[in-house]
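User: My instructor asked us to take a sequence, write out its structure as tokens, and then describe one feature of it. I'm not sure where to start. Here is the sequence I was given:
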Amino acid sequence: MPQTYIDQFFYMDPGSAPPGGTSLTVQKVNFTDSDDDGFIGTATGDTFNGAQVMNVWVGDTITVIMGGSTVTITGVTLYVDDGAGGTYAVFTPTDGTVLQDATFQSSTWVNTSTQTPVSNFGPPCFTPGTLIRVPGGEVAVETLVPGDLVETLDHGAQPLRWVGRRTVEGRGDLAPVAIAAGTLDNLRDLRVSPQHRMLFTGWRAELCTGQAEVLVAAKHLVGQPGITRAPVDEVDYIHLLFDRHEIIFAENTPTESFYPGSEILAADRAMFNEVVRIFPEILRIRAEGAPVARRIGQRHEDRLIAS
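Assistant: Let's start with the prediction itself. The structure tokens for your sequence are:
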């Protein structure tokens, strides 16, 4: 099933750069992983704003004046079919930079078109009413606040650093995934965002990935017994952020917390600024490269593991 994401872009080409001093305006645009393989590439029908992606240049950089400072941003440039026999270019960061309107200075570019992963796009999050394990019991996710202790699989009780909440249209690619009670040892029905990953263990995980424990995206479980899409007009998604990527327990089922390196923070300036105000260490964590709590399965692996 095609998966659509939103990200921040400048309409410009580092390999055919505009003159120094050119103004760059931030745009937020949808792009689609048409074959849902976890990558944006050139031979699988992937699209940007509905048009075919023709080239993917990973590792381009631009130097701009942004927010009063000169910064160099590393990212990926997409060449997109313009519908008239040519292409146009867009650039998006991959280093965690939150774009602001800027003034172009200079650029570098790569010479080989490859593909870029989308595994960091789209936030893992819970819906209100989900019970989260805490010391001494469980509480509804919407009652948690920064500083509250939550039980984790690897590090015991850990304090929440940030809790985010957003309301989105609950249809199409953003429709929640419903996991019926008992399907994944969950004691009650559980609803999560499509990108939210559940922890799978056992021989299937090891056979498919060489790891005994693997995080599997909820959207890749749809169609398995007890797991369906549950579209609604609107849905509230709640994010739980810790000092590191953690395995926590929702309705008794091990699942992931919000990933500190998530590109959703790069795509949402307001969210990023809110997190930085409360949790300034995230700047260092993102710069150093935030490790994931477990290996993240690819689409084909996820479906084999869950079968």
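For the description part of your assignment, you could build on this observation: The longest helix spans residues 269-278. Try explaining in your own words what that tells you about the chain.
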